[in-house]
Amino acid sequence: MTAPLDLRQVVSPYLRDLIELANLDRFDRVREQVERVGGCTRPIQLVGSTVTLDAATRDVLHAYSTADEPTGRLLVACGNRRATRCPACSRLYAADTYQLIKAGLTGGKAVPETVRAHPRVFATLTAPSFGRVHNRPTTATGKLLPCRCGESHTADDSTLGTPVDPQTYDYCGAVLFNAHAGALWARFTTFLRREIAARAGLAQKELANVLRLSFAKVAEYQKRGLVHFHAVVRLDGPQGSTAPPPAWATAELLTDAIESAAARVVLTVESDTVGVRELRWGRQIDVREIAGATADSDLTDRAVAAYVAKYATKGAEGSGTVDRSLYCHLCNGRGMTTPVFDGDPIECRSCGGTGMAESLACLAVERHVRQMIRTCWDLGRLPEFADLKLWKWAHMLGFRGHFSTKSRRYSTTLGALREIRRAWRTEQTRKRLELPEPSDATTLVHSDWRYLASGYSPGEELLAETVRRESAMALQLKHEGEEWR
Questions:
Q1: Taking the domains of the chain in order of start, what are their residue ranges?
Q2: Cα(3)–Cα(295) distance, integer angstroms
């Protein structure tokens, strides 16, 4: 007989834990939990129970407790939208965003298909120039031209997007633009309604009685670390997507109004330290009409939905920054902590009074990004910019808005899509357990759940990596199959 394996001889903690899990009576259940969260990078561990009772007799119809699980807890997906944090959950978020955008272009999800005939455009609002940067200019025919520095950069050159002359680059203006990008967008939508009303010969209050402006936008970082917005803008009847707009509301009128409104937007920021700054959109404004799915165009409704969904899962890391906050959470970035008993604030021992969780000199980022972060930190210390909380959003280079937003009547919501998926899963579980139809009159559900921790055990991490690899291979095969159609 072969002697049993001594786990103390297994050097790898991952392999040792996996062997221990494999020896459990219900190892299949362990693997099933990992597969159900889709290989989530950092799932939430819950402990607790739920009991379903007959409302009349109080008989137990179904009971579940994590005490019966082989590992003693339940894994739940983290739900993080960012691809750098959790590729598995971000793919689900991107799929939901795709359905949300697509519904506003082609109908579905409680949006009528007649919305296809509404005027709709894809608009891109960019940031202005704050100084010359290294780039790859081309001619109208696509011929590559030398950069302003005199060199011809390759596509993967790390200097792209960085200032040609860092000494004269307006870092304060760049950070303040990012910090006020959301306010600039809100002001733009106000001016856009005014421009549409002026072209229709109506007052702005009268416009609301005949037309509604609907939109969905996503933020994207340029290589130079500045935010710009891509937006689907649509004209509807006064009640939204259920009614067409007036005949005079055309895509041409909408395009002209967007260009005029973007040029008019200005936001003035005053400070004793940096002076008076007027923040505007850049001159490179692109507005194009969205074609139908069968049209011979690259800008179809499905292509636009896929484009927006792709950027909904990205963050500032595309510009070379980090994907984590940099302020000290112990002192909340203040550098000082308040004693338990009454007394004067004392220097935070965790950050040494700097307010930063990590030293700027130790960050693995380019010089340009490091200076953007440093500028966020310096401006955030000024009283006139305290409400911007730039120290909290330094890792985002000052941008503190939502990456993906929409107007109320554009289409469905992410919450509604998640509720549909949750209801479907609940119904499948009910049928599998042969439970009665849920209602307050027939069943009662008592639940008690508590947070335990986040992440996997070492052995579960190996199982999760297998799930991720299989999912990536399935996606690759799917894409290759679509390309060959």
A1: 7-80+417-483, 87-137+157-320+402-412, 336-395
A2: 70
